[in-house]
């Protein structure tokens, strides 16, 4: 079993839809959780960061962490074609190091 | 603010050859990371530097990979000799301090170097 798992997609949705992206993980020691967006042939860029369990909202993006279920989610409201990218979850045991990334989910938002 | 610079952008070599990648982080960033991203997978951390020192190199295949950070600024990652399974994108990232993702400590990634080993 891999440490961090994501559905690879591709996930295709119409413009304006609400998108739900998810990760599951196996190690309960993870405490810091992040979502990155990666456009084709670019490096990842940080979208959201959450410590421990709970929700965090930033504009059209909401991140949720459920440590009891070892499950994290990213919701994108009013999705746009510019949101088409690969979304990577990442987590770490210690502050600022030992980052582990999921394999990514490829999202396509159709105009 | 200039981003993380990497060169070359693309490299094709034959197995058993050597290759080196260069990274110039954002000015003032203390922490520098090298990741390997194989097609269809997420980035895997190879090595993390804080200033000149190594914080984590537990996943670096030390029999063939080496990395150094010159004077706490630029960094080079070397593979010697390369294997077919080293074909991947090598990403460099930097952060002001720890890169945990809190405000002001985001990891900023470069565009990566695409390596193809034939």
Q: Which features characterize this protein?
A:
heterodimer; A: 111 residues; mainly beta; 11 strands; B: 118 residues; 4-stranded antiparallel sheet; 0% helix; globular
Stretches with pLDDT under 50, minimum 5 residues of chain B = none
Largest interface: A-B, 24 and 29 residues
Helix content of chain A: under 10%
| Biggest β-sheet description of chain B | 7 strands, mixed
Task: State the helicity of chain B in percent bands.
Answer: under 10%
Q: How do the helices and strands line up, and which of them pair or pack?
A:
The complex is a heterodimer of chains A (111) and B (118).
Chain A: E1 4-6, E2 11-14, E3 19-25, E4 32-38, E5 45-51, E6 54-58, E7 61-66, E8 71-76, E9 85-92, E10 100-101, E11 105-110
Parallel strand pairs in A: 2-11
Antiparallel strand pairs in A: 1-3, 3-8, 4-5, 4-9, 6-7, 7-8, 9-10, 9-11
Chain B: E1 5-7, E2 10-13, E3 19-24, E4 31-37, E5 44-50, E6 53-56, E7 65-69, E8 75-79, E9 88-95, E10 108-109, E11 113-117
Parallel strand pairs in B: 2-11
Antiparallel strand pairs in B: 1-3, 3-8, 4-5, 4-9, 5-6, 7-8, 9-10, 9-11
Give a quick summary of the entry.
Chain A is mainly beta and 111 residues long. Chain A contains no helices and eleven strands. Chain B is 0% helix and 47% strand.
Describe it for me?
The complex is a heterodimer of chains A (111) and B (118). Chain A is mainly beta and 111 residues long. Chain A has no helices and eleven strands. In chain A, the strands form two sheets. In chain A, strands 2, 4, 5, 9, 10 and 11 form a six-stranded mixed beta sheet that branches. Chain A starts with a strand and ends with a strand. Chain B is globular, with a radius of gyration of 14 Å. Chain B has strands spanning 5-7, 10-13, 19-24, 31-37, 44-50, 53-56, 65-69, 75-79, 88-95, 108-109, 113-117. Chain B starts with a strand and ends with a strand. The mean pLDDT of chain B is 91. In chain B, the strands form two sheets. In chain B, strands 2, 4, 5, 6, 9, 10 and 11 form a seven-stranded mixed beta sheet that branches. In chain B, strands 1-3-8-7 form a four-stranded antiparallel beta sheet, with no helix packed on it. Chain B contains no helices and eleven strands. Chain B is mostly beta strands and 118 residues long. Chain A binds chain B through residues 4, 8, 32, 34, 41-46, 49, 88, 90, 92, 95-104, and chain B through 4, 31, 33, 40-45, 48, 55-56, 91, 93, 95, 97-102, 105-112.
């Amino acid at each position: 079993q891999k440490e961090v798992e994501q559905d690879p997609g591709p996930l295709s949705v119409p413009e304006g839809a609400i998108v739900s992206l998810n990760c599951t993980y196996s190690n309960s020691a993870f405490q810091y959780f992040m979502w990155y967006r990666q456009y084709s042939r670019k490096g990842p860029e940080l979208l959201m960061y959450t410590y421990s369990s709970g929700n965090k909202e930033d504009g059209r993006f909401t991140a949720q962490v459920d440590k009891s279920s070892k499950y994290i989610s990213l919701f994108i409201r009013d999705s746009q074609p510019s949101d088409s990218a690969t979304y990577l979850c990442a987590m770490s045991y210690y502050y600022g190091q030992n980052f582990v990334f999921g394999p990514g989910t490829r999202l396509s938002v159709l105009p | 603010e200039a981003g993380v610079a990497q060169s070359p952008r693309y490299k094709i070599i034959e197995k058993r050859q050597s290759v080196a990648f260069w990274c110039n982080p954002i000015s003032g960033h203390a922490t520098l990371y090298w990741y390997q991203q194989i097609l269809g997978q997420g980035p895997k951390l190879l090595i993390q530097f804080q200033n000149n020192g190594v914080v984590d190199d537990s996943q670096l295949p030390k029999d063939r990979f080496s990395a150094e950070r010159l004077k706490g600024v630029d960094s080079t990652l070397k593979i010697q000799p390369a294997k077919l399974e080293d074909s991947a994108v090598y990403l460099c990232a930097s952060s002001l301090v720890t890169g945990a993702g809190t405000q002001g400590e985001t990891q900023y990634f470069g565009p990566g170097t695409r390596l193809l080993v034939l």
